[in-house]
Amino acid sequence: MSLEDEEFVIPVMESLLPEISTRLNPPKEVLVDNSCWVLAFTGAFCAIVHSIEIPSHAKSVKEIAYKMVDSVRELVERGMEVGLVRRAFRDVENIVKKQLEWFGTSDFKFVKGMLWRLYEIKGMKMESKIVLWRISFILERGVAEQLKEYPKTELDWINQPED
């Protein structure tokens, strides 16, 4: 889903990615409002979708994509899934619904790879997995067949070459 004007996108991403990465650190305790983490998760998702095809951002994309999954894993393990993780998943679901018509092969592959990694998290509640399933269903039904390319290797889901 690369934006047309890379002269605009690249400087914006250079400013946003470090901040998003910092904010993806899971909160230590449940507060009345932990929306900062939810916003960081959804912001990371959007940032990756917009910059996954920009070669100069490959390292940041990889770092943030794995940090998203690790952050969810940590919150699930600490029992903080219901208030934070599921809310972030529902927000990502809404983003996918609204942005689906602009998704290309790299976006499809990234979302499918991320979903697969999130499904694998041990201890995740069924309600959260249902939201992930809905995202996958929306993606499968809404993306044209010629754009569907599934991840083949560990790094393929984030548009990275094998080392």
Question: How would you explain this protein's 3D organization?
Answer:
The structure is a single chain. This protein is mostly helical. The protein has one domain. Helices cover 65% and strands 0% of the residues. It is globular, with a radius of gyration of 15 Å. The model has no long low-confidence stretch (mean pLDDT 84).
> What is the count of structural domains?
1
Number of helices: 6
Order of secondary-structure elements: HHHHHH
Indicate the proportion of strand residues.
Answer: under 5%
User: Which range best describes the helical content: under 10%, 10-25%, 25-40%, 40-55%, 55-70% or over 70%?
Assistant: 55-70%
**Low-pLDDT residue spans:** none
Protein name: DUF577 domain-containing protein
Domain DUF577: 2-105
InterPro entries: DUF577
Topology at a glance:
Elements: H1 6-23, H2 35-51, H3 58-77, H4 81-99, H5 105-119, H6 126-142
